[in-house]
């Protein structure tokens, strides 16, 4: 201040400065705080040594010069702040206030805590603006980087199933955790850093698991063994999450429990996958038993009705092929496939079973709405359709060149209705006197397995067959 050229400023020699201006300058020069005074309508800049580094290469040319000359790159931002104080007498205060500045030959985004106050003259008029500032750029940048790091860490932990860490101060019964950890245990996240009694966290555990976990914690406190437990958390919305906790008890110099620290991982997906596999294994076992039961019935009835081993073999092959084609329409969820993959449609089932009997001459006409058929119903319907088609080929409409079959179906009044009508085959003089294997198998498939009914109408020009099955049994 003593050395700078007074001729470059409109303030004149220091000896001619007004008393209040000299008083303010004497106050700020020895201060360790960063202070700059913008004086008069031109905002002449006067500052102390502590402030000089904050403007970099602008010092010393900025000293005693109008602020607009040396703060040109941020003047549109700075001038409104200074005029607000100069014209209203209001003090402007802000924390981590961003500024754009070029102080080292390149642009920078910097941050300051600022306090801009009016300086009054002897007449009570505002003569300038006293700015006490503190650069916070380093802290702001560090906080932002820390926030980014914490976010990346949180994302990584979340992706790995990690809920968080905990530190239980045993002697004071103060349990500290991450905020997400607390929330999972239905504890107010605000208590995660302040700490809470262990009992508040235990209250978030499923009631059926609390006693077991409490005993495990006490055992870990009394021993040197690691703590590894799986248990359920009962969420506020009623849902259940499975977690695995791993920790250990740290002891003081006297061997007394001091801290219990560890981590908690969300294993809900693994538990659900294990349960699905268990259920699927049971379902697979059930289906295999049912399949063998069907095979046993087919073999027994075929043996009783067949006249020769060759006839029995042909009959068995035909019926088993029908089962295989029908089963190809569905994919039992042994490998964890969705439930919908265990379903097919009536149209696909009819076309698949009758495909070997269709010679491409439109002898078989079929149609109906898109009705869903479940994994259990598809086997019974496939056998019934196969037996009807086989009988039609051997004795009915398909045994004659001009014979035809018309199949139609619909869903009505909670039931599935299918009608099978044969025309152009050998004339029927009278209904069959004895019930053959095909009829027995069809009856069993429809009535016993699906809770439905089947009606035969032996008309002179061909068989008319009607099948009725409850819709709720058809889709399972």
Quickly list its features:
476 residues; alpha+beta; five-stranded antiparallel β-sheet; 14 helices; 17 strands; 27% strand
Compose a concise summary of this entry.
The protein has 476 residues and is α+β, with helices and mostly antiparallel strands.
Written account of the structure:
39% of the residues lie in helices and 27% in strands. With 476 residues, the chain is α+β, with helices and mostly antiparallel strands. Helix 9 runs antiparallel to helix 10 (309-327) and helix 11 packs parallel to helix 12 (375-394). It is elongated and about 140 Å long.
Mean pLDDT: 85
Uncertain residue segments: 330-340
Residues in helices, as a percent range: 25-40%
Largest sheet: 5 strands, antiparallel
With strands numbered from the N-terminus, the spatial order across the biggest sheet is: 2-1-5-4-3
Structural class computed from helices and strand pairing: alpha+beta
Alpha carbon gap, first and last residue: 94 Å
SS elements, strand count:
17
Q: Approximately how much beta-strand content do the residues carry?
A: 25-35%
Rg from C-alpha positions? 44 Å
Approximate shape = elongated
Give the number of helices: 14
């Amino acid at each position: 201040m003593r050395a700078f050229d007074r001729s470059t400023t409109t303030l004149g020699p220091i000896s001619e400065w007004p008393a209040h201006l000299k008083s303010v300058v004497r106050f700020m020069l020895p201060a360790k705080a960063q202070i700059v005074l913008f004086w008069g309508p031109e905002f002449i800049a006067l500052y102390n040594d502590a402030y000089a580094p904050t403007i970099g290469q602008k010092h010393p040319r900025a000293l005693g010069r109008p602020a607009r000359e040396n703060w040109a790159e941020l003047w549109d931002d700075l001038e409104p702040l200074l005029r607000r104080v100069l014209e209203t007498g209001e003090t402007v205060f802000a924390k981590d206030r961003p500024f754009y500045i070029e102080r080292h030959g390149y642009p920078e985004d910097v941050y300051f805590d600022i306090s801009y106050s009016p300086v009054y003259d002897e007449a009570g008029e505002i003569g300038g603006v006293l700015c006490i500032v503190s650069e916070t750029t380093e802290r702001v940048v560090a906080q932002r980087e820390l926030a980014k790091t914490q976010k990346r860490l949180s994302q990584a932990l979340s992706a790995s199933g990690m809920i968080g860490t905990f530190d239980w101060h045993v002697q004071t019964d103060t349990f500290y955790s991450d905020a997400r950890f607390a929330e999972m245990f239905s504890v107010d996240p605000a208590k995660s850093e302040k700490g809470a009694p262990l009992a508040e966290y235990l209250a978030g555990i499923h009631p059926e698991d609390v006693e077991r976990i409490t005993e495990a914690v006490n055992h870990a406190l009394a021993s040197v063994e690691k703590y590894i437990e799986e248990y359920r958390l009962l969420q506020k919305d009623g849902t259940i999450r499975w977690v695995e906790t791993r920790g250990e008890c740290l002891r003081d110099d006297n061997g007394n429990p001091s801290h219990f620290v560890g981590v908690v991982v969300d294993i809900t997906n693994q538990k659900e996958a294990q349960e699905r596999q268990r259920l699927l294994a049971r379902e697979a076992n059930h289906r295999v038993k049912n399949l063998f039961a069907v095979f046993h019935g087919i073999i027994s009835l075929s043996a009783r009705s067949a006249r020769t081993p060759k006839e029995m073999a042909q009959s068995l092959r035909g019926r088993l092929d029908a089962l295989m084609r029908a089963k190809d329409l569905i994919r039992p969820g042994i490998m964890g496939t969705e439930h919908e993959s265990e379903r097919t449609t009536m149209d696909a089932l009819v076309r698949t079973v009758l495909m070997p009997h269709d010679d491409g001459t439109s002898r078989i006409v079929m149609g109906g709405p898109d009705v869903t058929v479940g994994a259990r119903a598809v086997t019974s319907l496939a056998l019934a359709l196969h037996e009807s088609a086989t009988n039609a080929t051997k004795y009915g409409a398909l045994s004659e060149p001009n014979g035809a079959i018309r199949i139609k179906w619909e869903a009505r009044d909670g039931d599935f209705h299918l009608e099978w009508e044969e025309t152009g085959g050998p004339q029927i003089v009278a209904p069959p006197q004895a019930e053959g294997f095909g009829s027995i198998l069809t009856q069993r498939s429809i009535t016993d397995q699906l809770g439905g009914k089947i009606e035969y109408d032996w008309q002179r020009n061909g068989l008319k067959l009607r099948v009725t099955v409850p819709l709720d049994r058809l889709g399972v």
